[in-house]
Amino acid sequence: MRMVDVIAKKRDGGTLAIKEIEDFVRAYTADQIPDYQASAFAMAIYFQGMDEQESAALTKAMAASGDQLDLSRIAGTKVDKHSTGGVGDKTTFILSPIVAAAGVPVAKLSGRGLGHTGGTIDKLEAFPGFETELEEDTFIELVNKNKIAIAGQSGNLTPADKKLYALRDVTATVNAMPLIASSIMSKKIAAGSDAIVLDVKVGSGAFMTDLPAAKELARTMVNIGNELDRRTVAVISDMDQPLGRMVGNTLEVKEVIDVLRGNGPEDIYRLSVRLAAHMLVLGGKAKDVETGQTLANKLIQDGSALDIFRKFLESQGADPTLVDHPERLAKANNIITVEASASGYISTIDATKIGQAAGMLGAGRMTKGDIIDHAVGVEVKAKVGDWVEKGDVLVDLHANRDDVSEVVSVVKDSYQISDHAPEERPLIFHEMI
After folding, report:
1. What is the CATH number of the domain that holds 100?
2. Active site residue 82
3. Boundaries of each Pyrimidine nucleoside phosphorylase C-terminal domain copy (predicted)?
């Protein structure tokens, strides 16, 4: 294969053969193709796109470029869930024990976070002693025992994607839809589950800020999954304000416990139940999504999901009694209130700025070496549509330092107050089944 010919073919709108895509991924991973040619290839894809077969071939080749988890020793249909990311999104910790309580195995590999708050693994480490580095045999044993295990990703999972993403990041090709979709789906395919539920976020706190782009990404990923024999569904959900009320690692974990007790904010509760319902359908425990929702609600209300959550924590080294005594989890030294500067309706909240505020307090990391402060974060007291009087609390900042003036400014900038109530925005915009 001459890489220049492959670049020219895609540049001119041609359809690549599966072997051409496989050869590119293999050679680029092995450092046999220079970055300047890979950059040209990514730019050609940016402008010309890829069809379903090309996108699936790229995804499969990237998944095969490194370690792949074999889950065949786990009984039942393994169902995974992926979110494209947002502010205050902690649905994984809620829906996983729900689904496991119904007998659907959840074998999840997750990563750490760069950005506003920690990733799934960082948030789980808010429970002291929680073990995220599991040997494959132990991981599989725990899923067979409890129907749930969540572990850190292998360092050699989809190395082709890591390399290509780093290149896209500095060549203005991150937003190429086939490359976004293949990047996400290659990790899901390598993780070995039989079926996948995708939560595609849209709004000010999401990677996709407009609905047409979110639909295109969801459709592309669903097509890839189905093309590669993974039953895949997508839910497009709102991220135009923080999800739930807590943003920050320990704060979010406490909200998870609250939801699993049948309480918590309505938006995070409803979305978690809806996503769990799709997983229950894919796992063969519900005939349709409505039946799945009924079952998911039952497993919360009768305490089954919370019982599984306790077993999950204990099996991976954490103290399960923290579920019953979340007040023993880490707390910040200071709570600083941010008050409304005028009376009116909360018309918008810039979710990204709320995330930035949490990151500035230390809840996230900007580089891999940064240390996360699990205790800090943002507690959202007023959400879109709420009426506030001047001086009412918009946000509580949980901080471990005294000077948070810059953080306060960011939070104030994130809120818009109006005389008129805003038009209600759906929690779920669209579902692709």
Report:
1. 3.40.1030.10
2. yes
3. 345-418
Q: Is residue 68 part of a domain?
A: no
Does residue 284 sit in the same domain as residue 339?
no
Q: Are residues 198 and 85 in the same domain?
A: yes
232 with 270, same domain: the answer is yes
Domain co-membership, 214 together with 346: no
Long-range contacts of 211-215 (CB under 8 A, 24+ apart): 211/236, 211/429, 211/430, 213/177, 214/429, 215/430
Q: Is 231 a catalytic residue?
A: no
Contact 265, 246 (CB under 8 A): no
- Residue 216: which domain range? 79-323
Residue 113, CB-side half-sphere exposure with 13 Å CA sphere: 30
The answer to whether residue 187 is catalytic is: yes
Among candidate residues 269, 302, 323, the one where a domain is terminated: 323
Could you tell me if 370 and 343 lie in one domain?
A: yes
Claim: this prediction has a pTM higher than 0.70: yes
Q: Residues 161, 199, 258, 396: which is the catalytic one?
A: 161
Digits of tens for pLDDT over the chain (433 positions)? Answer: 799 999 999 999 999 999 999 999 999 999 999 999 999 999 999 999 999 999 999 999 999 999 999 999 999 999 999 999 889 999 999 999 999 999 999 999 987 765 677 788 999 999 999 999 999 999 999 999 999 999 998 778 999 999 999 999 899 998 899 999 999 999 999 999 999 999 999 999 998 999 999 999 999 999 999 999 999 999 999 999 999 999 999 999 999 999 999 999 999 999 999 999 999 999 999 999 999 999 999 999 999 999 999 999 999 999 999 999 999 999 999 999 999 999 999 999 999 999 999 999 999 887 777 889 999 999 999 999 999 999 999 999 999 998 999 999 999 999 999 999 999 999 999 999 8
Virtual torsion, Cα 413, 414, 416, 421, nearest 10 deg: -170
Domain count of the fold of the chain = 3
* Residue of 60, 78, 81, 168 with catalytic role: 168
Q: Which stretch of DSSP H or E encloses residue 350?
A: none
Closest by CA to 50, choosing from 2, 84, 9, 3, is: 9
Q: Is 319 a catalytic residue?
A: no
